[in-house]
Amino acid sequence: MSEGAHRAFADDASVRRIGEGLIHRTLPKQEWTHEAHLAACVFLLVERPEIVPERDMPGIIAGYNESLGGVNDDTQGYHETVTQLYIRAIRAFLARHGGGSLADTVQALLASPIALRDWPLSHYSRDRLFSIAARRAWVEPDLAPIAPPEI
Q1: Pairwise CA distance, residues 106 & 12, whole Å
Q2: Which superkingdom heads the taxonomic lineage of this protein's source (predicted)?
Q3: Which of 5, 63, 90, 112 has the smallest set of CB atoms within 10 Å of its CB?
Q4: What DSSP letter does each residue of 22-56 carry, written as one string?
């Protein structure tokens, strides 16, 4: 993760801007980074109780992608297993490390193993994670279970 990613979430307002930009489809495409995905999930879980990420995130992300001219199909766009995996992991992370400011929580998350771009591959084989089935629906890990101690 780059130092620029850390500076991007220097305060609560910067996290809220990402989350609200995603919801309202106003976030510039170049700002929809891996780190922004994680920050948006923290924001939704902490500050938007009317949104149930497990239920609502598919439509939110797919709609955002489409608003930018993107496509959600079997090879690109929204990915159900990756999304649900991160929601689960971030929920568990918040249970252990939540309670601080949004920015501090996001900073702690970005410093954790969960924030590594290849973290899902410690639980899934590449073939399973990037399969059409995993893109369309939740599939269980085939390498290692998701365990709270790592989170």
Answers
A1: 9
A2: Bacteria
A3: 63
A4: HHTT-S-GGG--HHHHHHHHHHHHHH-TT--HHHH
CA angle 94, 97, 99 (to 5 degrees): 80
Selection from 105, 142, 101 nearest residue 120 by Cα = 142
- 126 within 8 A of 148, measured Cβ to Cβ: no
Instruction: Please give the model's pTM, rounded to 2 decimal places.
Output: 0.91
Q: Are 103 and 12 spatial neighbours (Cβ–Cβ below 8 Å)?
A: yes
Q: List, for residues 76-116, the tens digit of each pLDDT value.
A: 999 999 999 999 999 999 999 878 999 999 999 999 999 99
- Sequence letter at residue 66: E
How many degrees, rounded to 5, is the angle at CA 40 between CA 36 and CA 44?
175
